[in-house]
Amino acid sequence: MYAYAVDPGGEYITPEESRRRHPEGKRGFYVNFTNRCPCACTFCLRSLKRMPAEHSLWLAEEPSVPEVEAALADLPWPLASELVFCGFGEPTTRLDVLTDLLRWTRREHPGIPTRLNTNGLSDLIHGRDTAPDFAGLLDTVSISLNAATPERYLALTRSRFGIGSFEAMLRFAQACRDYVPNVVLTVVDQVGDAAEIEACRQIAESCGLKLRVRRYESH
Ligand code: SF4
Fold first, then answer.
1. How far, in Å, CA of 203 to CA of 45, rounded?
2. How do the domains of the chain map onto residue ranges?
3. Hey, is 168 helix, strand or coil?
4. Full-model pTM
5. Residues 219 and 117: beta-carbon distance below 8 Å
6. By the 8 A CB rule, do 75 and 7 touch?
7. How far apart are CA 217 and CA 190, in angstroms?
8. Which of 37, 85, 153, 188 to mutate to test the pocket of ligand 1 (most atoms within 8 A of CB)?
9. pLDDT tens for residues 47-70?
10. Going by CATH, does the domain composed of 3-214 fall within 3.50.50.60?
11. pLDDT at residue 27 above 90?
12. What is the greatest pairwise CA distance in the chain?
């Protein structure tokens, strides 16, 4: 599925199925266009979640921009509260595709808030500062902080960029403040204990950012 919804029970379903099950009320819709990621997080749902084939977020091939736009055009937009670029992979591995789709969303549905869920490693993926790419395109960027130290971060994410990943992620998060109105760092509730979550809160505060403790799910 290139576009999907998450049922209250956590099941990934097509937007049409979501509309059939819940014809009233707003909900977020999600965009899935790559399975690539430079991390292999110990808690990643890509390796843990079981999905029926018809609702799978595993992609046989990466879709083109027009293919994803066609899926987005079919969304039941009156039911949409937000469009979230997330999926079963790291969206910024296809940065140009991501920004093209954000531009399409701004043009076709300017009233819909947009969010990117990311591991925050796009500067390392592309070897340059990437936060400016999001200027005027995103309402919220939600970045996985995951841990309070570079060592613990690397142990959890197993990033292929190694021990410098943590600092690069924090630099990206701080750079985003100049381009995205709402920048949020996140930790997963079941991954850290109370002391680690408190340490993460202090890191977020020191960067002038909010921390959200989120439910266990893929970034
Ligand atoms: S949780 Fe996110 S960052 Fe970690 S491996 Fe999975 S897709 Fe990549």
1. 26
2. 3-214
3. helix
4. 0.94
5. yes
6. no
7. 10
8. 37
9. 777 777 778 899 999 999 999 999
10. no
11. yes
12. 47
